[in-house]
Amino acid sequence: MNIHLIRTEGFPEEQFQELLAFLRQQSGILQFVGGKIVTLNPDFTYHIFLEEKDYSQQFQPRMQKTSAYRSESSNFQESYTKPDFPLRQRTYNWETFFQTCKAYREFNQIPEKDFIFLLTDRNNTENWFGGINQQMNNFFVHTADWPLFFRMLNKPIYPIAYEIMAWILRSMMYPSRETIYAHVHKEPLGCINDFCQDKKQIILKMRTGDICDDCMDQIINNDVSPPLLRQIQSILNEVRQHILFSRNRNVYLTSSRLLIDLSKRTLHFPEYAQGKVKLNPKELALYLLFLEQNEGLALNQVVDFKAELLEKYMHLSGQNNHERMQATIELLADYRENELNITLSRIRKKIKDLIGREFAEKYTIELLANNKHGISIDREFVEIIEESFQV
Ligand SMILES: [Zn+2]
């Protein structure tokens, strides 16, 4: 089943791609298709807010922006800029969103049974996080303002992903849009179908990532396919992990020293774990190469460092079969072969298994913001021990 994601310009390309990648992590029946930028009909009204007070009043009770504006958190400041007043905001009615979906569907010959999600930073007249059309195949999800609710969250893609999954599930649970509305929980239960009259209540349901017993009965009664439910729940669970993790982010920001023992070929993270990561000579040679590259290395550049890799490999393995070692490195350094990726993921898995995913990210070889691969830990934390190392 295809889910087409399209966006208006205000939802940045980078976040859009990140969201797609995140949703595609859990394989299953739902296939997420990256769509194009669309333009809304110029069919909007203006709300003019002379000052912050008016802004909050206008949106009562569903919008409680004012308290969040006063937040002082630095993370929050990074990701959200308080608007200037007086503020004039365009507000669209839902039909405008759905007409855009409809036009996109027709132009691109997308079958009626496929879902289209319009991701937009534009305000909607009902001031909802998302919505569904009458035929239940076009949707919209609001992409802006998430930092107001998740102060510590550095990426809004997780709540957006949650909304997408919630709307897909609702459309499968109930026969019509009206029944969806009739069954939302007015009192928040921490369930996916909480209405969140006060928008802040959304925090609860995303933290629990849960589906209540009544809704689960409804899911069974309406024959939602189990693999589909499983895929949705896996994604909700991933969202939950990220949202819970974001609250602890500052705690996790503390780093451990990384002690690398070349003779034993071990990585030790004394502040995180008692045990050690044991790497084979090939893995360690590659790891050391990336550690030396502070700015990272594109995978197709590894081949330029064949000589360095071979030298490290020979030292670490302590073997003499030069030809065989050279062949191993030739294969490893060629990014068109699978060997490089396999080796990188083996290293990644070993480190994650020891210290956990959250801590591991800084120590594993990952895609960096500059599109190269590298290890992001500050090198001041790294100590290489070679005393007992014999060439
Ligand atoms: Zn429920």
Description:
Helices cover 44% and strands 15% of the residues. The chain is an alpha/beta fold and 391 residues long. The chain folds into 2 domains: 2-250, 3-Layer(aba) Sandwich (Collagenase (Catalytic Domain)), CATH 3.40.390; 258-385, no CATH class. The strands form 4 sheets. A 5-stranded mixed β-sheet has the order 2-1-5-8-7, with helices on both faces. It has a 4-stranded mixed β-sheet with strand order 11-10-9-14, covered by helices on one side. Helix 1 crosses helix 7 and helix 13 (281-292) crosses helix 14. Zinc ion binds next to helix 10.
Distance between the termini: 58 Å
* SSE-based structural type: alpha/beta
The ligands found in this model are: zinc ion
What is the approximate shape? elongated
Assembly type: single chain
CATH first level of the largest domain? Alpha Beta
- Give me the CATH architecture of the largest domain, please: 3-Layer(aba) Sandwich
**pLDDT averaged over residues:** 85
Q: Count the helices. How many? A: 17
Work out the strand percent. 15-25%
Q: How many E-type strands? A: 14
